[in-house]
Design goal:
alpha+beta, Alpha-Beta Plaits, two-stranded antiparallel sheet, 4 strands, binds FE3-S4 cluster, metal ion binding
């Protein structure tokens, strides 16, 4: 499965949800996650994310986020249409150390 990682936090651009053929994104307050059992590994969402937050689970960057995608996808509502990203999304893009800012 593909995995949404820390780079999504406070960016939440949501371009990813518009291209997913199986609608397997789930939305928290300031981050999205992918349901690992629903993702069909098509890869089309990966290049759509302006924050480069989406990686395959084989990527080392996914390690810290695989379990959280599974856990949070079960808690958060499904999202299939792009909404309005946070006003300051661009200011948070590429910033390190955002994990502590995740709203669960
Ligand atoms: Fe959806 Fe494909 Fe991305 Fe998986 S890899 S989340 S199926 S767009
Ligand atoms: Fe997040 Fe990128 Fe989607 S910032 S909401 S994974 S387009």
């Amino acid at each position: 499965a593909y995995v949404v990682t820390e780079s999504c936090i406070k960016c939440k651009y949501m371009d990813c949800v518009e291209v997913c053929p199986v609608d397997c994104f789930y939305a928290g307050e300031n981050m999205l996650v992918i349901h690992p059992d629903e993702c069909i590994d098509c890869g089309v969402c990966e290049p759509e994310c302006p924050a480069e937050a989406i990686v395959p689970d084989s990527d080392a960057k996914a390690d810290a986020w695989i379990d959280q995608n599974r856990e949070l996808a079960a808690l958060w509502p499904n999202i299939t249409r792009k909404g309005t990203p946070p006003e300051d999304a661009d200011a948070w893009k590429d910033r390190p150390g955002k994990a502590a800012s995740l709203s669960r």
